[in-house]
Amino acid sequence: MDKIYYSNQFPHLKLEREEISFRNGFKHVARLIELYRGPFKDSQIPVPAINRKVLILVQTENQRNALIPLVKRFGNEVQLLDLRAESSETKPTQEQLQYLALLHSWNMLLSFFTVRGNDRIIYRKRFYNLHTVLGYYEYAKKLITQKNTPLKLVIASNDHSGISISVFLACNSCKLESLYVQHASVNQGVTPLIMTYAFLDGKDAQDKYHNAGSSNTKISLTGIMKLDPYLALPAIKELGKYVSVGISTYFCDIDKNFNLCQELESRNIPFIVRFHPNVPPHIREKFAAHSWKISDNRETALDHILNTKAVISGDSTILLEAIMLYRRPVYFASEGVVNDFYHYLKNGLIDKAYTDIEELVNGLEQDFDMNLHRKKAKYYNDALYSDYEGQSVERTAELILKIMVEK
After folding, report:
1. Most CB atoms within 10 A, among 157, 172, 241, 393?
2. 157 lies in the same domain as 279
3. Could you tell me if 252 and 370 lie in one domain?
4. What InterPro entries does the database record attribute to this sequence (predicted)?
5. Is the pLDDT of residue 3 over 90?
6. How far apart, in whole angstroms, are the C-alpha atoms of residue 220 and residue 390?
């Protein structure tokens, strides 16, 4: 089985080296045995029947939003396997994944002592999560090797975590072709591509994957499918009423963003708060207590953006989505550090990084050259300013059909 963890995949983690000793090792062995006590009671793993040539797999709402255009385009020609949290009928339980991972227990324990360098640090920090990755790997093999299945191609939209990485590895092991369709901007910490094909948004992703290391994956640039219906709207350039304030638990100082909302309110600037799905209830309640307008959780990010005239956020792909939909992206480095995680500032999509609230609010009144900055977004979305702008779904579908014909 290929390597399933990489030290450069977690650049934001501050890890401390763990003392290496047999006593420490036996402690982890004992914990692993305790961890696996339950799985033997739940060994029946239901695997849904795959009866289409193309399987599309999603595990999060963002992944579903990225791939649902293909489901609508192909209809009954493809099969969607939805493993989001609420899809309990098809998603294996943690105990089931632990049971499936038992096949790899010896290698897991051996690697605990033999892995070297920074990989050892990462491996030990994530040791108790590996059963999920390995369990999904075995689950994926069961899924794609069913008797009499016509399956020829598996499509997923995450290249480094969740079940997607396990599925790609399983496809490689079982000689089945796989396709990765990018669903969000990527950073410099990406790992080499391992699937058969990759459909990437633009040159930014292509360059970063090229720099990650050697790969046999066949890459095509297809733009961003989920944007197609929005770019076709006649009123796409008609700005909304609100300034959006994005709240997350990543690259986001909650108190400073709260103070930002207070400043906007004091200046009578209409604004709306948009929570990332990972924001816990107690933080949401803090903002809701002030009767500020809150974005509906059921509203997609793109629908939300359409109702705004500017989008304030830390390091997030919503800044890219904003400028592609002709809304001003405002980069608020609220933690005081300008990470420029996706290089939006470096590559000219945004005009400035703000760390001061008053300066940011004053900046909202300054001119912003939308055409100048939006043209820079083509580096991230190859479809922009091309013959197929707004036609990424059809371009992607044509390439998939070509793959299937060649088979």
Report:
1. 157
2. no
3. yes
4. TagF_C
5. no
6. 17
Q: Tell me the β-bridge partners of 219.
A: 198
pLDDT tens readout for residues 47-67: 889 999 999 999 888 888 889
Note every long-range contact of 292-297, with CB atoms under 8 Å and residues 24 or more positions apart, other chains counting.
292/261, 292/265, 293/242, 295/244
Q: What is the CATH number of the domain that holds 182?
A: 3.40.50
State the Cα–Cα distance between residues 329 and 341, nearest whole angstrom: 15
Number of domains making up the chain: 2
3-state percent helix, strand, coil for the chain, nearest multiple of 5:
45, 15, 45
How far apart are alpha carbons 194 and 215 in whole angstroms?
7
Judgement on whether residues 12 and 70 belong to the same structural domain of the protein? yes
Domain that holds residue 134: 7-224
Q: How buried is 283 (Cβ within 10 angstroms: 0-12 exposed, 13-18 middle, 19+ buried)?
A: middle
The verdict on 57 and 183 lying in the same domain is yes
8 Å CB contact between 400 and 220: no
Considering the domain architecture, whether residues 176 and 268 belong to the same structural domain is answered as no
- With respect to residue 387, please indicate whether it lies within any of the assigned structural domains: no
29: Cβ contacts below 8 Å, ≥ 6 apart: 109
pLDDT band for position 184 (50/70/90)? Answer: confident
Task: Tell me the pLDDT band of 21, cut-offs 50, 70 and 90.
Answer: very low
